[in-house]
Fold Monooxygenase.
Amino acid sequence: MPRRPDVPVYRPDIYSPRAILDPYPHYAALRELGPVVRLPKHNAYALPRYAECRAALLDHKTFVSGDGVGLNPVINRLSRGTTLTSDGEDHTRRRALVAHRLTPRALRDLTDDIRRRADEIVAAAVARRTVDGAELAAALPLSVVPDLVGWPQEGREHLLTWGAATFDALGPANGQAVKAIPAGLAMMRFARDVVRHRTALPGSMGADLLTAADNGTLTHAECPALMIDYLAPSLDTTLSGIAGALHLFATHPAQWQHLRQDPTLIPNAVNEVLRFASPLRAFSRKVAHDTELAGTALPAGTRVLVLYASANRDPLVWEDPDTFTIHRNASRHLAFGQGKHGCAGQGLARLETEAFLAALVARVATLAPAGPPRWSPNNIIHRLEHLPLELTPA
């Protein structure tokens, strides 16, 4: 591809308070400008289209994660040593420590229990009729993920705040990131106490980490960050996806009726929810050596921003991308990333979301807004913090 002589520039701040709450107009403007767009406000290059995002994610030797995936150099330094922020053998070693707990076979062993929990949660919600969809969406992940990771019962009341802060800090060094620091530090202190006092639940990922540290596979100092690394993404992205599904089906009643008429569409519907309302906005990568992408020269050291949520609305890939339809084949979405750093817990996230929707389909005839939704201001996660809903029993 011929080299582009001029890289388009986008000067608005895509992490301003208003842009965080409504990012999609910015993404559309970025895609219109080109495949690689310079963001002078953040000293980075945005990848707003699908093809370039996917190419960067698959080329893990050129677009590396080991120097951090945020836009804040301080947080990037502090967050080193996790699965998310490592490359090569270090990444493979850390990921392998818990991979056996996320295999299809391991998830099959969890399926009946997760379906039972989902049905109980939905049944209780239907009995109340009027619910906060954001709280309802959090209930299933909160009942599953902390146990799997091994997080002690003490401290679970802070997990939503702590997890959100962990993501928020990975944005640029703006007000949002600064406000997130105390909660992020509190989560790290708690995780260190779990490791120091060995209070991770038996038979959990956390227990596996402690065993690996005892055996010399990793150090005990690595364990707290890895526990957070396993817990926060598994919790926040899943509850954001479920809340997004509730919001979309409440505001698209015809789509809800299609799903009730044909529940075999549930896996497809989950993909479309993740495409249309991607929980994860973006992570960055650092360019390891001089390269080109879409004809744009990117010198070593350049920070590129992989805009997952924008790629998932790319009209070059998706027909009528701003329309939500569960009949679309959205399986190519990038909501879970791709390549070496693709979400290790995506199978669990799908299992939880599908179980939740199956319970909802069985018990709810209609769901409708009962008031205006409110989005959570967060640099990285696109999440509802309040979603009033009226549920009509089936």
User: Anything to note?
Assistant: The two ends are 56 Å apart (CA to CA). The chain has 15 helices and twelve strands. The domain at 17-393 is CATH 1.10.630.10 (Cytochrome p450).
